[in-house]
Design brief:
The structure holds two protein chains of two kinds. Chain A is mainly alpha-helical. Chain A has three helices and no strands. Helix content of chain A is 70%, strand content 0%. Chain A starts with a helix and ends with a helix. By secondary structure, chain B is of the alpha/beta class. In chain B, α4 crosses α5. Classes of the chains: A mainly alpha, B alpha/beta. Chains A and B meet through α1 and α3 of A and α8, α20 and α21 of B.
């Protein structure tokens, strides 16, 4: 089979495998940065009560507040959660895809 | 040079290149040629001081050693020439390679509109199968454009209906356009030299024959001999070893012995001339290999300038001529008398058919009538002409050729001291540079005991000046970018993670307790009926989370795959169309 045919075969028939670690880091970074910027946006905006809804995340992320320090803590929490979510999706996806491929 | 001579059959580009390479390694050779001049299919014919190139041979190559050899042989006699070629159709001329605006303007508003509508119709409702050339092109350009720019010329060249010509053949002609090439083309611009190659080319001052004569002189200076007008009667063998080649020169027969033998004669003819003959299956396979012939009617016209093109493709079905060469525009020195113009009216025919059987006089009359009808020159201005026939100009890639060639190839590969080279020797549509390369590699197989596979000398790159050669890393990267996501697996993965996340969040709040447990998370019941922030609700949340995640994940994977497929398909089509615009250069 020529190299061209091989590539066509790959593109048209092969199923992609995800790199769980990269997927985890990317999802973690996106989640972390989102929470970091969302928190600081509300901090900069200011007001009588700063970010009452976002502050509800404190129920899960102990120590998180809508403040600059809270944004750093939130970044860490969201990164860890995002990492686990991304890693878990990729890991589970690869297992299921492998299983399905083996099953034909 | 006391080594036994090597016998080379055919003094075309391949045979001469082989002799040149052998001489460089201290081997002398005897080259036998049936015609009275060197050059084979790329020879230059002369008539009354005018030079005629049989088929028009542009000199450009990506094979550096061939390029070096050309320059070594001709040096300053190699001219850089501008290229202009057009298509003649319905009494109009269109630039070639096709320029969309020029084509639409030339065709008129209504026909252009019909072409656009036809294109859209075939994009929306293409042929389901792409078995024939007609279906293949129609699916890419629409039927109207196919009929305008592809049908008649292709049928003239190959003498078969486009509905019979297999799509495989077209795909093979533009085989260099792999998905890989198309995808890489999206990320890398072709180098500037490519544009130059399309717009300009090198050409020997007196036509390609000048190159082959220089090659002949070079090999003869090194002790080899070129014997013209020698017809091969038989190739005698003992088992799988060739013993000698029996030739005839003006009725005088002679057996040429050698240590090794190289042949560029048509492989079909070679099989017929073997003594003793090979098995019946090989003979029958060789007979199935077909050629298309070329008749060039050379006209001398009493006009200093006729048109600016190097050549014109004649798509118009009202005339039989397929292509017209204006040799003066290839090199001014091709016309012996500057006050006149020499043209080559090219007719594609199969030996034995009506056109091929016409007398030279009738062909000249036909050419005069047709050049007058096209409006490029008046019949009365044509003062003289001659006819050159090349019976085996184009190896035909029909549905049967591949299996027939495989049988012949297997037999030829079994011969110990024999190699076959060149376009017809390999029954492969190689241009002159690759034909030469097969000769060079065959010579190295002898002189340096290399094991080059001549059958695999590729034809791709010559068709596609823009061909990009990717490395393995790029291939890997492409494979990673463009492979599909498994929709079900991705959906299940996202579903499991979402379900688990909602389950964990619910349970965490339940464990945490308080007066009102999870008032905000419980808002989810607006979407998930029955969901509560309770222990039992966490299980319902798990199921809801899984379902929502599954649907979201599936949709994401589906859209991602669809977008990728559309992107890849469009890139591929675009690249195919780009090559098809210059398709006739590859015919």
């Amino acid at each position: 089979m020529t190299a061209e045919k091989e590539l066509e075969q790959v593109i048209l028939t092969r199923i992609v495998r995800l790199n769980a670690r990269i997927q985890g880091v990317v999802t973690g970074l996106i989640a972390g940065l989102l929470l970091f910027f969302a928190t600081n946006w509300l901090v900069l905006k200011g007001g009588y009560r700063v970010g009452p809804h976002l502050a509800l995340l404190g129920q899960f992320f102990i120590g998180y507040h809508v403040s600059f320090l809270g944004s750093l803590i939130g970044f860490a929490y969201a990164f860890v959660c995002g990492f686990f979510v991304g890693y878990a999706i990729a890991w589970i996806y690869n297992r299921i895809a492998d299983g399905r491929q083996r099953a034909g | 040079m006391d080594k036994p001579p090597i016998v080379i059959i055919g003094a075309g580009p391949a045979g001469l290149a082989a002799a040149h390479e052998l001489a460089a390694h201290g081997h002398s050779s005897i080259i036998v040629e049936k015609l009275d001049k060197v050059g084979g299919l790329a020879r230059t014919e002369n008539y009354r001081g005018f030079s005629f190139d049989i088929g028009g041979h542009r000199f450009f190559t990506k094979e550096e050693e061939v390029n070096r050899l050309w320059r070594e042989l001709l040096g300053p006699e190699f001219l850089r020439r501008p290229r202009l070629s057009r298509i003649y159709y319905r009494r109009r001329f269109f630039y070639y390679p096709l320029r969309p605006l020029n084509a639409l303007a030339g065709l008129g508003v209504w026909r252009s509109l019909a072409i656009v509508l036809s294109y859209l119709r075939w994009q929306l409702f293409p042929h389901k199968g792409e078995d024939t050339f007609e279906q293949w092109v129609t699916n890419r350009f629409g039927r109207k454009l196919f009929e305008t720019f592809f049908k008649t010329y292709t049928e003239k060249v190959w003498g078969i209906s486009c509905a019979e010509l297999r799509a495989e053949w077209a795909a093979q002609r533009i085989r260099g356009l792999s998905l890989k090439t198309a995808l890489i083309g999206m990320f890398r611009k072709p180098p500037a030299t490519i544009k130059t190659l399309i717009e300009e080319f090198d050409y020997p001052r007196l036509g390609p024959g000048m190159m082959w004569q220089a090659a002949r002189d070079a090999v003869e200076r090194r002790g080899s001999s070129v014997r013209l007008g020698c017809e091969v009667i038989s190739i005698r063998r003992r088992g799988s070893a060739i013993e000698n080649v029996l030739i005839s020169n003006n009725g005088h027969q002679e057996a040429l012995s050698g240590a090794e033998f190289i042949s560029s004669m048509p492989v079909k003819e070679l099989v017929e001339k073997l003594d003793p003959p090979p098995s019946q299956s090989v003979i029958e396979a060789a007979r199935r290999l077909r050629f298309r012939g070329l008749i060039v009617v050379c006209l001398i016209v009493r006009r200093p300038d006729l048109f600016p093109d190097n050549w014109i493709y004649i798509h118009d079905p009202t005339v039989k001529v397929g292509r017209i060469q204006n040799y003066k525009n290839w090199s001014p020195a091709m016309a012996g008398d500057g006050s006149k113009t020499s043209l080559g009216m090219e007719y594609f025919a199969t030996p034995g058919d009506g056109l091929w059987s016409m007398s030279d006089g009738a062909l000249i009359e036909l050419a005069k009538t047709e050049i007058n009808r096209i409006g490029l020159a008046a019949s009365a201005d044509v003062e003289d002409g001659c006819v050159v026939r090349a019976p085996e100009a184009y190896p035909v890639y029909d549905a049967d050729y591949r299996s027939a060639l495989a049988t012949v190839r297997e037999f030829v590969n079994g011969l110990e001291n024999f190699q076959t080279i060149g376009r017809n020797g390999l029954h492969r549509y190689n241009n002159q540079d690759h034909a030469m390369l097969t000769g060079i590699l065959a010579a190295r197989n002898i002189a340096l005991a290399e094991r080059n596979d001549l059958w695999s000398v590729n034809t791709d790159s010559e068709y596609h000046e823009e061909l990009l050669v990717p490395d393995k890393a790029i291939e890997e990267a492409l494979a990673r970018i463009f492979t599909r996501l498994d929709r079900t697996a991705f959906a299940a993965a996202v579903g499991i993670v979402c379900g688990a996340a909602l389950f964990a969040a619910t349970i965490a709040l339940v464990i945490k307790g308080g007066d009102v447990v999870g008032p905000n998370l419980s808002l989810l019941r607006q979407y998930f009926p029955g969901y509560r922030v309770t222990a039992s609700g966490s299980l319902l949340g798990l199921a809801y989370g899984f379902c929502a995640g599954y649907i979201g994940g599936w949709l994401f994977a589906f859209l991602r795959n669809a977008a990728m497929f559309i992107y890849v398909a469009r890139a591929y089509r675009r690249a195919q169309r780009g090559l098809l615009r210059r398709f006739f250069d590859y015919l």
